[in-house]
Amino acid sequence: MATLVQAVRMALHYGETYLGVTDILGEDVGPPLGGVFTATQGLATAWNTPLDERGIIGAAMGIAYAGGRPVAEIQFCDYGFNTIDLLKIAGNQRWAGAGNYELPLVVMTPSGSGIRGSLYHSHSFESWASRLAGWKIVMPSNALDAYGLMLSAILDPNPVLVLLPKALLRVHGEQLIPGEPADQEYLKQLIDAPLGDRSNWQPRWPDLDEYLVPIGQANRVREGTAATVVSYGRTLPLCVQAADALAAAHGLTFDVIDLRSIFPYDWSALSQSVLKTGRVLLVNEDTEVTNFGEHLLRRVIDEHFYELEVRPRVLQGRHLPGIGLHQTYERNSVPQLAHIQATLQALATEEA
Amino acid sequence: MTTVAEVHSGKEALSAEQCLAIHRVMVRARAMEERMIQMSKSGEGYFWIGGPGEEAFNTCLGLHIKKGCGPDYDFLHLHYRNAATLLAMQLPMLDAVRQAALRVTDPHSMGRNFVGHYALRQYNIVPVSSPVETQYAIAPGTAIVQKRHGGDGVTVVVGGDAGSSEGDFATCMIWSTRPGQELPVLMIVMNNQWGISTPMRSQHSERHIVDRGEAFGIPAETVDGNDPIASWHALRRAFQWCRRKRHPFMLEASVSRLHGHSSSSGAVRVRDEPDCIALFEGKLQSAGLLAQDAIDDAWEGAREEAAAAVEQALREPEPAAGDVYRHTYAPSGVDAVYPDDYTGLPE
Ligand SMILES: Cc1ncc(C[n+]2csc(CCOP(=O)(O)OP(=O)(O)O)c2C)c(N)n1
């Protein structure tokens, strides 16, 4: 099975071959490197830009205004902060401009902790991004969803931010991407650039098919009755692990919802599950002041207060200036499996 | 009255016919701006910012634009003082006034944005946005598409002197001169010596802003933007370079700011800066091309046109509560929540 980053690469290949992607641009995105995480190796339309994030977002916007379909990479979301007012313009231009222009722009960027990245390779971005009205924001937690969300992002005529969970980029999927060879060693031979000199290397792309994960559609990856847990990105598989462990040990079953889209989020999936279980935990690793999970919590309280059996909970990153390099810092800054499991158990077993 | 075929400015000349056409647009632009300033004070509008003092250069700019939609045509990344450019492109005064009057019929923004914040896809005018200088970061993108597409379309980007301090200005120079990937970008700086209240000379010591292009091998000119004949020829050379050579060019025009920064600072007429229209009228008069009564007629016609546009705009509907969400999103076949447009928070 492909890794999440291979899935992104295959989606971009599909995008430039069949969906009209004209430019894949960013720092070290073109040959020879093909991206610091290898997301853009071997792609026909990938090119290297100056080390200038504002230039990258600006140029991508201009390309989209002029009829192109760009995918821009910000090497780490930690370096996207100086682009925020351009991102704001990308999000508001259609509204401000009375619908004159479409802006079919995809920005992808690795987000979150989990690779021992210290202060500036560990930030989360979704809470910042959720304030950029006019954007759509997605975050896959597995390879197949990464493929399907990227194709949707490319097809959508609006700006779409694809947040890639850094910690999961090299994790293999559990489901085949349509057209992907089953043997992962073989896939690697086909599409991973060799180490060392690659000047004569060409990828051999598998014959991929279209597979779309609609924007705004969550995925219930476990079904249960004890409580609802909602997450995305790095913490999603941890929620699944926690739920499975509690099922095995205590017979407690959970609705585990992979939100997949931060905006627009699948309110109906979340709402229906909360109405069923009366108990909800929202998990993400962005810092807690002010966190996108708090918005979901606000809606849960506003709309389902009287259906809740116990107080709803949010697990999130601590309000800290950064994540420190020593693992003690990281483990005590962002939710880990043990936190999630303990919180889930407490949520499920609290007296109503 | 003896008439001449050409009007001269230094060694340069322009046909009488062209000069009269430029003068008409300049007067119409000024009359429109003056009426809009009134609107901002009378309650017919709300805010004013614009280009009195930039009409000579901006009119010539509009007359040089290859007007149309898509990469075969010029792209415009303007700032908020380009009213004369749009009039020179033969866009109706009424549309600018609709924006000043905050009408839902305003084709640029449905009454959402300040006056002078244009957006017109059919003429490659990408949305003007208030954050100063961001247009210089976006401009290389349209030029990338134009260069790849072929043809002679140019990307024009316009901003002020103070704004050139932002990194986006350097972004534009760097991205337009990547070796082997040079771009047909015409970078224009309208130097009025002010950034709101801050004199340029209190913050900048470079001789000319466009001198910065030298390090990148970008040819540059400075021009008296109060002189339409000089501006016309500078723009002609600049466009010719970008159209044919497919490389960038920089042009810095010294201009006046005749009503201060905006209505926030009162928009009061200043008297100590040259007025390009009065200067040009003097020139046209002494060339025997324009008698005083013809000048008076031009002004009267322009003021009537502006008054009629305001009257018309004010008869048109204002935005309604139901318009708040409109045009947030383009329709999408892959969005389960907003297949058409934004409808408020997901339900
Ligand atoms: C990024 C940004 N900072 C500050 C402002 C507020 N502001 C609006 S216009 C202006 C001065 C701009 O001066 P200049 O670029 O010389 O253009 P001018 O208004 O003189 O034509 C400022 C500071 C802004 N719009 N955008």
Q: Uncertain segments of chain A of ≥5 residues (pLDDT<50)?
A: none
- Percent range of helical residues of chain A: 25-40%
Order of helices and strands of chain B: EEHHEHHHEHEEEEHEHH
CATH topology of chain B: Rossmann fold
Number of domains of chain A: 2
| Helical content of chain B (DSSP H or I, runs of 4+) | 25-40%
How can the largest sheet of chain B be summarized? 5 strands, parallel
Q: How many strands appear in the DSSP assignment of chain A?
A: 12
Largest Cβ-defined interface: A-B, 55 and 53 residues
- CATH class descriptor of chain B: Alpha Beta
Q: What percentage of the residues of chain A does DSSP assign to strands (E)?
A: 15-25%
Which ranges of chain B are low-confidence, i.e. pLDDT below 50, for 5 or more consecutive residues? none
CA distance, first residue to last residue of chain A: 43 Å
Query: What fraction of residues of chain B sit in β-strands?
Result: 5-15%
CATH architecture of the largest domain in chain A: 3-Layer(aba) Sandwich
Question: Helical stretch count of chain B?
Answer: 9
Let me know the average pLDDT of chain A.
Answer: 98
What kind of sheet is the major sheet of chain A? 7 strands, mixed
